[in-house]
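Kindly review this protein for my students:
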Amino acid sequence: MLDSVKIQRRQSEIRQTLAGLVGKENPDEAETRQMAELDTEYRQNETRYRAALIAEDQERREAGADLETRDSREWADMLGRFEVRQVAMALDHGHQLDGETAEIVQELRSQGAYQGIPVPWQALETRAGETVASGTPDPVQTRPIIDRLFPASVAARMGAQMINIAQGEAEYPVATSGASVGWQTSETGDVAAPSAYATTDKPLAPDHTLGVQMKITRKALKQSGAALEQAVRRDMNGAIAQEVDRVSFLGAGSSGEQLGVIAGAATYGITETAIDAAPSWAAFRAAVVRFMTANAAGSPDAVRMMIRPEVWSDLDDALITGTAVSEWERLTRNIPAGNVAMSSNALAAPAGSPEVTKALLTTTAGGVAPFFVATWGAVDLIRDPYSDAASGGLRLTALATMDITVARAVQLEVLTGLQ
């Protein structure tokens, strides 16, 4: 407790005692002496109180700064203790949610309507000590934003900004024109005429819902420890991440799917350049130059690239005449290997004769991501106890609402006809 608070309490006690003593018409000698002592102590405490306030000023400022950030930190800490197995048990046999899990579910329900039990996106995160796809334990901290949820996602590696919207629609204004620059043509002439600062709104609407279904057997339900917790988390995490990557680039824009960046390049106004030749550093370099001349990128290392594994194989196999240097080595000398994503899920398999495929290049300009991937609220987890009732199992359906939009088409380019 702060010294100033302790002094205030003591001053209050002194005032109460003095009020009782001064009310007596004929106080005895002991009471008179006590009044004098309390009066002296009260005056001394006033001086001490002012000194304590001065000394504690810095502590109060630090405490105020801590209060400003405490809510977000406490929420992140609570999310780290959310237990998916409690949700599964509640859906199976009505187990009462408790602890942080109950608090989080109650908070999510107060912010949106859910048919089942809402599960925060961060709860699907791979937790510390789990074995991930590579087989190596990879401790990951809980983060309050979705782009930390799928850190290995191809969409995230290609610069997508993943955002979470509580409810309703959202629009992101992107500047398309602004200040004009020009010189006086004569001593009395005017500078360049002004142009209006204009923006284009990029809407995101909750029109697309992804469903993930899973079965939990009776045996798994009885193993209601960490094994079930991690199994459900990994299963849902992997299924959602894989589908988000696919529709982000290849979504058909029909049958409930969003319109993907590559599949909808013409609709979004993204440049498509036909290579119609074997992949080479020269072809990718030309695209990087187009980014730089359009002021979308300042250097080659600001460009991200997504290719099929077959394209990497061809680049690595193609040696420069008379050298032991491959086209892949030339490419990674200019574009960092960390900026290159290889995916057989986000890019269509080679087809045709000769077989051809596509590649995507993106860059982030002025802090604006090339495209947005939005999610709404939390994952809605719904129980189906009837489909697998004969075996005593439980079927869960997780519903997640998402949308995709391109920020600036000039920040993306699709290369076609890579043989």
